Amino acid sequence: MKKKLILGLLALSTASMLCGFDSAETAESILDKATEASSSVDGIDAGTTLNCDLAVNIGDGTTTSSIAVLVTADLDVQATLDPLATMVDGSMSISTFGQSEDLILKMYMVTGEDDSVEAYTYTEDSSSDAEGEGSWEYTSESGIDIQSLMDLSSTIDYSDMAAWGLDFTLASEAADYEGTECYLLTSVLDSSSFTTVLNKAEELVGEDVLGDISEEELSSALELLDGLKLNIEYYISTETYLPVAMHMDMNDSDLSTLNAYVATMLAGYLSDDDTSTVEIVLNDLSMDYTFSYEEISAITVPEEALEAIAAQEADDTEGETEILSDDSTETELQLVEG
Whose CA, among 86, 128, 135, 244, lies 20 to 30 Å from 168? Predict the structure, then answer.
């Protein structure tokens, strides 16, 4: 996926968390009041957790072998609106085939002097890096109109959200979230919404995100999503009308279409008899967010990141100089021999 799309969506999500969104009516005077409450918020701190627990079961008609895949992540995401910036700090753990890998992740997304979106990303792998000796990566995209994203995020109304597939329903009773009384709004996205999301993403970023993918290839890919569902629960404080938490999961999904495709793809690796089977079993795929709104300090890129990127650029420049020097020496030798 193109860096421009990723950075654009990240910028929009940051602004949306802070600006809120309007609503048409019903489920929705609640969203109106949430918009009004969010308009006075300058920063947000979102605790984020991810849990993926699945198994790949392979059978030969007599016995079944199970490969467990476990992925967990715990992230703290802070964001400010003026200027638009995001900081991510956390860790991720991946376990499969009896092997585990722990990652430390840091990311700073800031608005550059020319309104570009700049991202500094740090990763540290426990299996290959000594503690504190990970690596930084820098990316920049100047083709994203930050002001337009800000304007868009502050004017999205309920009908716009519905156009993205987010048709919220308000629960008939208040919900309790860790001691806070909340309005509970729910929505479900399914595979039929994915094409709309792609089209909206193209409008947002201003370019073709599908690249050279043909309509036939896209149609085949979308067929694999048949049966998948994303459940969303959105908790808004009855006192402040600020978002308190959000839960998303895909645990009600029907994986039969995806399993049929996987079985076809792996047919050559299984035994030749008709009793061989392969099946993905999803135990849990979920994300949880909790929001707080205490004053957030200005988000700036740390010196260690700037120094690391500067050192990398210096090494790249030195390498290019050496190549040019070698080419020049070779040319001079050819001229002398001539």
Answer: 86
